[in-house]
Design goal:
The chain is an alpha+beta fold and 201 residues long. It has helices at 5-22, 42-47, 81-88; strands at 28-40, 51-63, 66-78, 96-112, 122-142, 145-167, 173-185, 188-200. The relative contact order is 0.18.
Length: 201
C-alpha cells in the first residue's frame, strides 16, 4: 500500500514534535542562599563586610534552551567598625559605629542554557533586570554623643553571571550560581558579587 505524501509529512511532523516535547524542560521553583561580596563604590567595598543573600525564583521555559525567571531576593550587610574607625583616626577612642544596609530586589531574567535538556549537568548564563529597594541605617557614638542617620531609595539595576545545575534525585536538583549585580544609585553604581547555592524543585 502506498503512503501518501501528506501522510508522510504528518508522520514526520509528529515525530519531530514528539522529540521536541520530550526534551522540553519543566517549570521549576528555586530557593538558594549564599554570600554577597561588596565591589563598588569604594566606601561600600572598604567599610562593609561580606553580606548574606537569600533568593527565590520561578522559572518557565518558552524553549528547551531558554528560561525566563521571576524572582525576589534580599541581601544584608553590616559595617566593618574597625575599618571605619581606623580610616577616621579614631582607633582607641570611645568612638563606636553600628551600621547595616539591606537590599530587597524584584527581578525578571533570561537564562540561556549552553547544554541540551538531556545533559546530566546543566550549564547556563544569566542576565536580569531588577528593581531594588535600598535601606541603610547608622548609629555613631563619639564623645558621649550619639547620632543616628537613615537613608532609603528605590533604584533599577542589572545582573549578569552564570551557573550550574546538578542532579540530586528524581525531582530535585542542586543549583550553583554566581552573579554580579549593579544598582544604579544617584551619582554612582553600587555593585556586589553574589555566590549562592540552592535547590531546584
Amino acid at each position: 500500500m502506498k503512503v501518501s505524501k501528506r501522510g508522510m509529512m504528518l508522520a514526520v511532523f509528529v515525530l519531530c514534535a514528539s522529540a521536541v516535547f520530550a526534551q522540553d524542560r519543566r517549570k521549576q521553583i528555586e530557593l538558594f542562599a549564599g554570600a554577597a561580596i561588596p565591589l563598588a563604590p569604594q566606601e561600600f567595598k572598604d567599610y562593609y563586610k561580606v553580606g548574606g543573600s537569600l533568593h527565590g525564583q520561578y522559572v518557565i521555559f518558552p524553549s528547551p534552551n531558554l528560561g525566563v525567571s521571576f524572582g525576589l531576593a534580599i541581601e544584608g550587610f553590616t559595617v566593618d567598625q574597625d575599618a571605619v574607625l581606623a580610616d577616621a583616626g579614631l582607633t582607641g577612642t570611645d568612638a563606636a559605629i553600628e551600621a547595616n544596609a539591606s537590599i530587597f530586589e524584584l527581578g525578571v531574567g533570561l537564562r540561556p542554557y549552553l547544554t541540551p535538556p538531556t545533559a546530566t549537568t546543566q550549564f547556563f548564563l544569566f542576565g536580569m533586570g531588577t528593581y531594588n529597594a535600598l535601606s541603610e541605617e547608622a548609629t555613631i557614638t563619639y564623645l558621649g554623643q550619639t547620632f543616628t542617620a537613615k537613608a532609603d531609595g528605590n533604584n533599577i539595576g542589572l545582573a549578569a553571571g552564570a551557573g550550574l545545575e546538578l542532579p540530586a534525585g528524581e525531582k530535585l536538583n542542586i543549583i550553583i550560581q554566581g552573579l554580579t549585580r549593579f544598582i544604579f544609585t544617584e551619582g554612582s553604581t553600587t555593585s556586589f558579587l553574589g555566590v549562592t547555592l540552592g535547590v531546584v524543585f
